[in-house]
Amino acid sequence: MKGRSPATVAIAAATVLASIAIFVFGSVDYWAVYAGFIPARFGGTLAYLDDGLLLPAALTPFTATLIHGNLLHLAFNLVMLIFAGVATERALGAAGVVTLYLVGAVASVAAHWLLMPSSAVPMIGASGAVSALIGAYSLLYGQNRARPIGPFSARTVQVAWLIAGWTVINALLGFMTAGTGMPIAGAAHVGGFIAGVALARPLLRWHWQERA
């Protein structure tokens, strides 16, 4: 896997090292506040915290992906990252996977912010960025059984079904985990997934044009 998937391996290694270091040497609660994504820091009631008390807010969409609540949280995201990342990197190359992951991280926190812009609760974990890889994987490798509907092509209908299915799954997960010790940020997953679906074809064309 290492030789064919350097970007996926590098992202996974960085995520594991950062998360384990926090588990062993630090406090998850401290790092969640210091480097997690807090919606209210972006033009909200906590915008004043950009004065050096916490990590600059602009970095937190990316640093939040390196922080996990516990080993189960880390393990689940790692499995999905490797599963979707290796296959997606085979199609899009290392640069494509890195682009997907970074854009997915931004898209996921943007979706979360749109849903609850005044929230002071930190969002942590790589699942939003990983969802971008899952979205790209679903479009690149999923069998298209959709049919055209009116003016909409079969591919457009396929994309709509993928997004709708992922949205329903995460809405249910969010509902089931609401009020628990680890609620799932369903909107973040949907935001990352949409970014992955939207970028999959352009990145595929870019990657193979570069190789030609």
Automatic annotation (TrEMBL):
The keyword Cell inner membrane appears for this protein: no
Topology relative to the membrane: Multi-pass membrane protein
Keywords for this protein: Hydrolase, Membrane, Protease, Transmembrane, Transmembrane helix
A GO-annotated cellular component: membrane
GO terms for biological process, alphabetical: proteolysis
Intracellular or extracellular location(s): Membrane
Domain of life per record: Bacteria
Transmembrane portions of the chain: 7-33, 53-79, 91-114, 120-139, 159-178, 184-204
Name of protein: Rhomboid family intramembrane serine protease
Native species: Sphingomonas baiyangensis
